[in-house]
Amino acid sequence: MIKNKNVMITGAAGFIGSHLTEKLLKHANFLILIDNFNDYYAGKEKQLNDILSNYKQNSDYLLIKGNLVDESTLKQVEHEPDYIFHLAAQAGVRYSIDHASEVTYNNLVSTVNVFEYALKGSSIKRVINASSSSVYGNPLYTPVDENHPKNPISPYAVSKLCGEIYANLYFKENDLPITSLRFYTVYGPRGRPDMAIKKFFNLMFQNKEILIYGDGTQKRDFTYISDIVNGLILASEKINAIGEIFNLGGSNPVTVNELIDKMYNIVKAEKKIRNIEKQKGDVNITHSDISKAKKILDFTPEVNIDTGLRNQYEWQKNYYK
Ligand SMILES: NC(=O)c1ccc[n+]([C@@H]2O[C@H](COP(=O)([O-])OP(=O)(O)OC[C@H]3O[C@@H](n4cnc5c(N)ncnc54)[C@H](O)[C@@H]3O)[C@@H](O)[C@H]2O)c1
Predict the structure, then answer these.
(1) What is the pLDDT, as a whole number, of residue 28?
(2) Residue 118: CB within 6 Å of ligand 1?
(3) Which residue's CA is the nearest one to ligand 1's atom 43?
(4) pTM reported for the whole predicted model
(5) What is the domain-level CATH number for residue 88?
(6) pLDDT by residue (tens digit) across 287-303?
(7) Whether residue 186 has its Cβ less than 6 Å from ligand 1
(8) How far apart are CA 247 and CA 230, in angstroms?
């Protein structure tokens, strides 16, 4: 476990970044938190400030509100980080289809700026680069291992694949100790409002109809947030993870129809669903082969979908009120 270190987290106010921030603060690390609090969804600034309210600016953390596409943002950092977790990105597969150039510019330029910054550091032990299972596109076989061909079908997925290629370039040409992680649909408390589980619970609370893209037989490998945070930390600690790419997934996919049944069982609301046309950019199945992460990182997902959904429900019903 990373303790008493200087740790930079980009995208710290986001869903995954805020959980990593919470965990690393508890282990007496000094955190350099960077986020531009983009307006993709509301509430992230308050959410981060709630976590930080138990800690002190300048002695426990430094919060920089800035855009990583702007090189001057990283110039404001006075402490040399030992670890960098690069999570900042314009997320959202569907959003990227209508905002291709914005997503491409944001995700590529911010990633290159972070890697360039890391090159200048003298004490960098690891840079963790957040990638995505979307780089694979529609799988040719399942479960999908890291060597599966990459056929991204959205600008977001292409931007994540480019991020990995840059990571490889900086590792090979500059010896920067980078590890990339391909996350599979992450959910849990503070989950993003554009993601299915959060949207569906909110609609169930309001007794509103749920629109399902396609016939609901598409499968998703849902991964609980605490498992992702554990994976991030494990990946930063293992020496033989340097220069490597890992899938981080729950590895136990369920169909959207099964997911919705489980959610209705928890909420106990009247079932109201309607199937509509499949969305561009959506893949039919995501299913991670996590044997590499198990072997090299000791990564084992611990929270199954039933427990994870129950946890998200407990958090979201209070948040919703
Ligand atoms: N949540 C998932 O299921 C999932 C799956 C695969 C990959 N990922 C990746 O994990 C990372 C975190 O995702 P998340 O779900 O927490 O998303 P999020 O949108 O909740 O968090 C991203 C954060 O990055 C910030 N940000 C974006 N561009 C920035 C910039 N140019 N400068 C500074 N800050 C910027 C945003 O304000 C936001 O707070 C992203 O890189 C995403 O691509 C997430």
Answers:
(1) 78
(2) no
(3) 91
(4) 0.96
(5) 3.40.50.720
(6) 999 999 999 999 999 99
(7) yes
(8) 13
